[in-house]
């Protein structure tokens, strides 16, 4: 059996699946970090691969940008392919001055502006949270690997570009570390269907100051995030 947006056969996708927004990041990771790689999905160019990392079977699946797109893949991975551990490996914009470009955030919770969430919870506000077990393991692993991380809350938005000034001020004041576009829906769907979820986010830019990482910096820091995520598999 296949799902609507993924053409993998049952059993082709590992229990642990890493989720970058960018399908080409999935390809890069598969080609550079995994062995015995099989590409199981090309539908809509949303690449998915399964391979081995230090003897463990692991998959990496692009989700596209935004909660609408990511929600589709997350739903199908859990409900059709029975994936158990879903770990987002993404980028985010920082809204805190002390967060340097390239640093890794372990997202403990995700607020957001998704209509999907407000409709589901009838206008009330669900606290979408990561799985504690995965979060704790990622924290310990990062310490062991001597990778500096920041654990805290993030915000997932459906609109990348800000049309109004000072949009992030209130979130900054409440300690939110960074802004991405998928973590909230990941935590919500995973919790609903009994899977474990975590989001690791590399800071690619600072939304307040406007600074952004160079391509070289992105590559180096991206490796830090991948070492943690793959270590969890
Ligand atoms: O780097 P990825 O995983 O795509 O994540 C971030 O980058 C995209 C926006 O440029 C959004 O998907 C956002 O969540
Ligand atoms: O969603 C995102 C991702 C990276 N940088 C941002 O500013 N926003």
Automatic annotation (TrEMBL):
Domain spans labelled Nucleoside phosphorylase: 17-223
Top-level taxonomic group: Bacteria
A cellular-component GO term for this protein: cytosol
Gene3D superfamilies with a match to the protein in the record: Nucleoside phosphorylase domain (3.40.50.1580)
Keyword terms: Glycosyltransferase, Transferase
CDD domains: PNP_EcPNPI-like (cd09006)
Regions crossing the membrane: none
Keyword Transferase: yes
EC numbers, comma separated: 2.4.2.3
Enzyme class of the recorded protein, top EC level: transferase
SUPFAM superfamilies: Purine and uridine phosphorylases
GO biological process: purine nucleoside catabolic process
Swiss-Prot/TrEMBL catalytic activity: uridine + phosphate = alpha-D-ribose 1-phosphate + uracil
One of the Pfam families matching this protein, by short name: PNP_UDP_1
InterPro entries registered for this protein in UniProt: DeoD-type, Nucleoside_phosphorylase_d, Nucleoside_phosphorylase_sf
GO MF annotation list: purine-nucleoside phosphorylase activity; uridine phosphorylase activity
Keyword Nucleotidyltransferase: no
NCBIfam families associated with the record: deoD, PRK05819.1
Protein name according to UniProt: Uridine phosphorylase
């Amino acid at each position: 059996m296949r799902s609507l947006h993924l053409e993998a056969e049952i059993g082709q996708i590992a229990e642990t699946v890493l989720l970058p927004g960018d399908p080409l990041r999935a390809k890069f990771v598969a080609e550079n970090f995994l062995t015995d790689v099989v590409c199981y999905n090309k539908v809509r160019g949303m690449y998915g691969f399964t391979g081995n990392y230090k003897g463990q079977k692991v998959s990496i699946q692009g989700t596209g940008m935004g909660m609408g797109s990511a929600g589709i893949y997350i739903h199908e991975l859990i409900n059709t392919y029975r994936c158990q551990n879903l770990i987002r490996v993404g980028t985010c914009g920082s809204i805190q001055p002390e967060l340097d470009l390239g640093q890794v955030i372990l997202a403990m919770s995700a607020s957001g502006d998704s209509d999907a969430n407000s409709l589901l919870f009838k206008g009330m506000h669900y606290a979408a949270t990561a799985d504690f077990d995965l979060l704790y393991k990622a924290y310990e692993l990062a310490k062991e690997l001597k990778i500096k991380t920041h654990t805290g809350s993030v915000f997932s938005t459906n609109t990348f570009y800000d049309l109004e000034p000072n949009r992030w001020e209130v979130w900054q004041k409440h300690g939110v570390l960074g802004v991405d576009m998928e973590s909230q829906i990941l935590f919500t769907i995973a919790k609903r269907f009994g899977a474990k979820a975590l989001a690791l986010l590399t800071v690619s830019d600072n939304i307040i100051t406007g600074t952004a990482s160079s391509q070289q910096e992105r590559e180096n820091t991206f490796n830090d995030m991948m070492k943690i995520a793959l270590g969890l598999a």
